[in-house]
Specification:
The complex is a heterodimer of chains A (368) and B (244). Chain A is of the alpha/beta class and 368 residues long. Helix content of chain A is 68%, strand content 7%. Chain A folds into two domains: 238 residues, no CATH class; 103 residues, abc type-2 transporter like fold. Chain A is elongated and about 95 Å long. Chain B has a six-stranded mixed β-sheet with strand order 6-7-8-3-9-10, with helices on both faces. A four-stranded antiparallel β-sheet of chain B has the order 2-1-4-5, with helices on one face. Chain B has nine helices and ten strands. Chain B has one domain: Rossmann fold (3-Layer(aba) Sandwich). Helix content of chain B is 38%, strand content 27%.
Chain lengths: 368, 244
């Protein structure tokens, strides 16, 4: 036990004396959560738009007021004719133009129909889409207002309710993903690098010649990263609760236990990577390409798995992060317990055991 | 030296797939002997040594080190030997004192022992000013001295040195051999691989490995007489050419 403490102490010296690992361990999580939380968002806020109003009557004025009152848009400019539209887009100052046709009110009253054109700058398709949805919904709510007194014989009333994230905050979607990425990064990449560093420096040989057993060496290298990963997980959860007011509906202990399970999973992957790579550089490349990219692209963190092509959907099954994100969202947003998450938990346990078994086998082959 | 043999090797072989790295070698090393294990790069020296220090399993044959079998009693072998690799492997981001404490710790030395031993070591090597500096900032020659002393911390009977003088200048090499001799006088057995043939002259006995086999094993003096040459270098060249 005493030998073990000495070993862990030495590992912490390595970590705390290397500015790069310190940054990856403690700077990254905070920077990433902040970035994903604040900067990367699907919501729109105060988007600059312009108005081209050919009729300038009571109805168009009411619509314009309604739009400018919403927090989503701010009216930057009033255009005079169609030619100005493209110029305005090219300048890049506005993202959308609302074009009211001539005699808007009159047509609305006499023909019961008037047209407003929504023109968006689709160089950024997501934003363009969101803008056009938001504007349409403002227009349709105005229309309802006008139709208040009239009853239409057949009508389908659509009522939408968004469960678990009623305000559709995108940070709720990012926090579980970012937490997954960071735990993967810290646990898998940092351990695989730190183990291969010993190989590169030749100190691994010295450790193996010492009376320490190989598994003691590995456990000694891994334990500090378990501690650091747990600290990171706590920091991320605290940040998401207090900075982004993300709820944790479910059991905190279950959340903790599942997080530790995922950390173990990532660590076993890290060990596996270190057994197959001879240098720190390789370990880093394998971790980045083999772990980080799939976590970001295929875990369902950013791109929904159900809309992926079938082969990618199949591949996404073998990515531990996919299951962990489901677990995190389940516990944090839906507040469900193990009853609903046992399948995902079991998959993670199975994967972890598989990775550990595989690295033990690889390790033995190396010794022989 | 028949009774005082501390390393017994009999028909030791190591194969990697079709390739035989160590081919049926047998030899003994006496207690307190400085035993040179020579060979060109790739002759199988390091592989053979790795089997003796218990980190590589022999494909066939047997070896006993300090009275323990390397196959079945590797843990006991490891406790009785010291090892220094050709890279003077210490942790660059730890100070000399921290390195000593760490390596003393993994050999299970008591805290008080580690303290006295590291102080002795620092006194002996005259490293008072450097003891709390990071090892990474030390010149290679000093790293070598520290690495050697660290391999002696747990008072092993045999010290295995894998090309201990690679990359250091002749004066430092000379001084290093003085350290080796001091330990040999204290009764420690030194097993050293090298490809510097001038260093072979410092050994009590040398074995020369060529393509996985031991082609010659005797005192440097006898070898030179046998091959009728002036230096170990010429002995080596003769042997290597014969094989080709």
């Amino acid at each position: 036990m005493k030998r073990f403490i000495g070993f862990i102490k030495k590992e912490f010296y390595h970590i705390f004396r290397d500015k790069r690992s310190l940054f990856i361990l403690f700077g990254m999580p905070i920077v990433q959560v902040m970035l994903f939380g604040f900067a990367i968002t699907n919501e729109i806020n105060n988007v600059d738009i312009a108005i081209l109003d050919h009729s300038k009557d009571a109805n168009t004025k009411q619509i314009i007021d309604k739009i400018s009152a919403s927090k989503y848009f701010s009216i930057k400019d009033f255009l005079d004719n169609e030619r100005d539209i493209e110029t305005a887009f090219k300048k890049g100052e506005i993202k959308a133009v609302l074009n009211f046709e001539k005699d808007f009110s009159k047509k609305l009253m006499t023909e019961n129909q008037a047209t407003v054109q929504i023109l968006t700058d689709a160089t950024d398709p997501n934003t363009a889409n969101t803008i056009s949805n938001y504007t349409s919904s403002i227009l349709s709510s105005y229309q309802e207002l006008l139709n208040k007194d009239i009853s239409i014989p057949y009508q389908i009333g659509v009522q939408t309710r968004m469960f678990y994230n009623p305000e559709l905050k995108s940070v709720f979607m990012f926090v579980p993903g970012v937490m997954t990425i960071i735990l993967m990064l810290v646990s898998a990449m940092m351990t695989s690098i730190s183990i291969t560093r010993e190989k590169e420096l030749g100190t691994m040989e010295i450790l193996l010649v010492s009376p320490l057993k190989p598994f003691q060496v590995i456990v000694g290298k891994v334990v500090p990263y378990i501690l650091l990963s747990v600290i990171n997980a706590i920091v991320i959860i605290l940040l998401s609760i207090f900075v982004f007011s993300m709820p944790v509906e479910g059991n905190l202990f279950l959340l903790g236990a599942e997080t530790i399970l995922f950390i173990m999973n990532a660590l076993s992957l890290g060990i596996l990577i270190s057994t197959v790579s001879a240098s720190q550089q390789t370990a880093m490349m394998v971790s980045l390409m083999g772990l980080m990219l799939p976590v970001i692209l295929l875990s369902g963190f950013i791109f929904p798995i159900s809309s992926m092509p079938f082969p990618l959907q199949v591949i996404s099954n073998i990515i531990p992060a996919r299951w962990f994100i489901i677990i995190l969202k389940g516990i944090m947003l839906k507040g469900v317990g193990l009853v609903y998450l046992w399948k995902e938990t079991l998959i993670l346990v199975g994967m972890t055991l598989f990775f550990i078994a595989l690295s033990v086998k690889k390790y033995k082959i190396r010794l022989e | 030296m028949k009774n005082g043999n501390i390393i017994h090797v009999k028909n030791l072989t190591k194969t990697f797939g079709d390739f035989t790295a160590v081919d049926n070698i047998s030899f003994q090393v006496g207690k307190g002997e400085v035993f040179g294990f020579l060979g060109a790069n790739g002759a199988g020296k390091t592989t053979a040594m790795k089997m003796l220090i218990g980190i590589s399993k022999p494909s066939s044959g047997e070896a006993q080190v300090a009275g323990f079998d390397v196959k079945s009693q590797a843990e006991k072998v490891k406790r009785s030997i010291g090892y220094m690799s050709q890279r003077f492997s210490l942790y660059n981001d730890l100070t000399i004192r921290e390195n000593i404490t760490f390596f003393g710790g993994i050999y299970g030395l008591k805290k008080s022992d580690i303290k006295t031993k590291s102080q002795n070591l620092i006194d002996e090597l005259d490293l008072h000013d450097e003891a709390d500096k990071l090892v990474g900032s030390l010149p290679l020659g000093w790293k070598q001295k520290v690495a050697f002393s660290v391999s002696l911390l747990h008072d092993p009977q045999i010290i295995f040195l894998d090309e201990p003088t690679g990359g250091v200048d002749p004066i430092t090499r000379r001084k290093f051999w003085e350290m080796i001799y001091r330990e040999a006088h204290k009764g420690k057995t030194i097993f050293v691989t090298t490809h510097y043939m001038d260093e072979a002259e410092y050994c009590d006995r040398v074995s020369i490995m060529v393509a996985g086999k031991i082609e010659a094993l005797d005192t440097p003096k006898n070898l030179k007489e046998k091959y009728k040459v002036e230096s170990m270098n010429q002995v080596f060249l003769k042997l290597a050419r014969n094989i080709e």
